[in-house]
Amino acid sequence: MTLEPSDPSAGTRPAEPAEEPSLVRCARHPEVETGLRCGRCDTPICPRCLVLTPVGARCRDCARLRRLPLFEAAPRHYLLAVLAGVFSAALGAVALLFLPAFGFLTLLLYLALGYGVGEAVSLATNRKRATGLAVVAAGCAGLGALAPALLRLSPPLAVLAIALAGAGAWGRMR
Q: What pLDDT is recorded for position 170?
């Protein structure tokens, strides 16, 4: 078996100089020069416009930044939230009128009323977590706690009970 001498320069090419990206102006910020481009539409983008996605750097238009559907509520969700909130708050208010008062421990019942209203609103809206739905739930819980609190508690405790009901509903929705 004979070995032929190999030519060390055979099969290798001299390194070509890497082409430097030409600097262009950002499409949204004309005062900024950049060498970055969107990986999809090739629009010049500066670091402020850059959105990192799993497939590379994109401009804001190509990245399609949207809120999660969990945090978006349509008008029908608000209608369902009001209906569920008013119904559950009314049931809770009737229940609170028939339960005996236990001083400060009664405040826990108002907190439970708020949590229950928040849960009812959450179920009715398919577990959406929009801020507006939390406001609806807190408002319904506060209104549901209003009559029992004013009829059975002293004014300072009534205000605290109403606030706790609203806070319980808000906390359940957020």
A: 97
CB neighbour list of residue 7: distance below 8 Å, 6 or more residues apart? none
Instruction: Enumerate residue ranges in the chain where pLDDT < 50.
Output: none
| DSSP annotation of 149 | H
Per-residue model confidence (pLDDT) at position 117 = 97
Please state, in angstroms and as integers, the Cα–Cα distance from residue 31 to each residue in 46, 52, 57, 141, following that order: 10, 22, 21, 52
Q: What does the domain layout of the chain look like in residue ranges?
A: 24-63, 69-173
Asked if residues 124 and 87 have their Cβ atoms less than 8 Å apart, the reply is no
d(CA 159, CA 157): 5
Measured torsion, CA atoms of residues 73, 77, 78, 82, in degrees rounded to the nearest 10: -150
Separation CA 26–CA 21 (nearest Å): 14
List, for residues 8-45, the tens digit of each pLDDT value: 555 555 555 556 657 899 988 889 889 888 888 989 99
